[in-house]
Amino acid sequence: MLLSNKPDIVFHLAAQPLVIESYKKPLLTFDVNCRGTLNVLSSCSNKKFIKSIVLITSDKCYENIGKVISYNEDDPLGGTD
Predict the structure, then answer these.
(1) Rounded to an integer, what is the distance from CA 26 to the centroid of its chain?
(2) Whole-number Cα distances in Å, 75 to 4, 8, 54, 71, 78
(3) Are 12 and 40 in contact (CB under 8 A)?
(4) Phi and psi of 11, rounded to 5°?
(5) Cα–Cα distance measured from residue 52 to residue 66, given in angstroms and rounded to the nearest whole number
(6) Distance CA 37, CA 64 (A)
(7) DSSP helix/strand/coil, 14
(8) Tens-digit pLDDT profile for the chain (81 aa)?
(9) How many beta carbons lie within 10 A of that of residue 26, not counting itself?
């Protein structure tokens, strides 16, 4: 897919989407999240047409301070999920 489309930017959003499932199946979740990211990075390595790779995380990595609006990168880390 990368070679036929030759994107400038690659977005990686795939991961275990349900926190409760990650509690039930931590090894599978770790494998899906970490190996998935490594696969994306490995697939993109040495592809000169790729200018950027954007890796997206969940808002669950941020400390829950009861915000109604979206969290941003300046918010404190420390989510309990």
Answers:
(1) 16
(2) 39, 29, 19, 6, 10
(3) yes
(4) -105, 130
(5) 33
(6) 25
(7) coil
(8) 889 999 999 999 878 888 888 889 999 999 988 999 999 999 999 999 999 999 987 777 888 888 788 888 888 888 777
(9) 11
